[in-house]
Amino acid sequence: MPSQASPPVHASFPSEKLTTGAGVAIFHIASQRAVVCYHSRDKYWFLPKGRRNANEETARAAEREGFEESGYRNRVLPLPMKHRQTTPEDGHQRFVTEPLWTQLLPLTATSQYLLFWYAAETVPREVEDTYSARQAHQSVRAYEAPTLFPPDMTMQQRVALDDVKGEDGTQTIYEPVKHEGTGVDEEELLYRSFLLPIEEVRRRLKGSVMEDVVRRGWEGIQLRMQMEAQSSAE
After folding, report:
1. Could you tell me the CATH number of the domain that includes residue 130?
2. Could you give the CA distance from residue 145 to residue 223 in angstroms, rounded to a whole number?
3. How far apart are CA 27 and CA 222, in angstroms?
4. Is pLDDT of 90 > 90?
5. Strand ranges (DSSP E) for 29-100?
């Protein structure tokens, strides 16, 4: 059963009492799988999430936390969704990178946590190869935000990028690179991540907002594909 929205609340927090964070559901669209993490000590399943760095855009924070906690480089997906934001000056956008869910969670007895959930994708091989080549010449491998999803690329075109033709002529699907050692503290060394079928990920997250983030994200991807297919047929 999908998570239910809470009643609106009236609350105010000074900067020192409010922490902003971001989480992400990462999809490998071509194989219809999503990334899910497991805490090897405390035995629970979760989607990657964490605090936003000062001066960092929230969507960029979601991508970074996704990479640090799961090892999969990812980028937020523009999707068709209902939202209450205003129309930008350059006109209505069919596909947006707004949060799928937002949570208000107590952090301590006197401070509040504001958590935004996004949908993202594993990056294509050409993007991964670019980063690997650049970082091979760097002594310190600092995190770099991935290139944005191209505004003129359709979902079908994106899926086609993951079609790999072997030397024998057979077609396979590109397997995203899972980087090791991307965690930034001792706690994150206990995390394990897996690319599993969508329904399996939902089962492991069942009853949580995270399950609904996966559901909404995958439905948004499928809806975008349908909308783009209809547009090309007209």
Report:
1. 3.90.79.10
2. 27
3. 12
4. no
5. 33-39, 44-46, 49-51, 74-76
Q: How many domains does the chain have?
A: 1
In contact, 159 and 29? CB cutoff 8 Å: yes
Q: How far is CA 81 from CA 75, 119, 139, in A?
A: 17, 11, 42
- Tell me if 121 is assigned to some domain: yes
The beta-strand segments (E) located in the chain are 18-28, 33-39, 44-46, 49-51, 74-76, 101-106, 112-122, 163-165, 171-173, 191-197
pLDDT tens digits along 128-176:
999 888 877 776 678 899 999 999 999 999 999 999 877 777 889 999 9
Q: Which residues contact 15 (CB under 8 A, 6 or more apart)?
A: none
Q: Tell me, yes or no, whether 54 lies in a domain.
A: yes
**Tokens 């990479």 — which residue?**
67
**Domain-embedded: residue 70:** yes
> Tokens 């503290």 correspond to what residue?
185
Q: Which domain holds residue 165?
A: 17-233
**Residue 147 forms part of a structural domain:** yes
d(CA 48, CA 53): 15
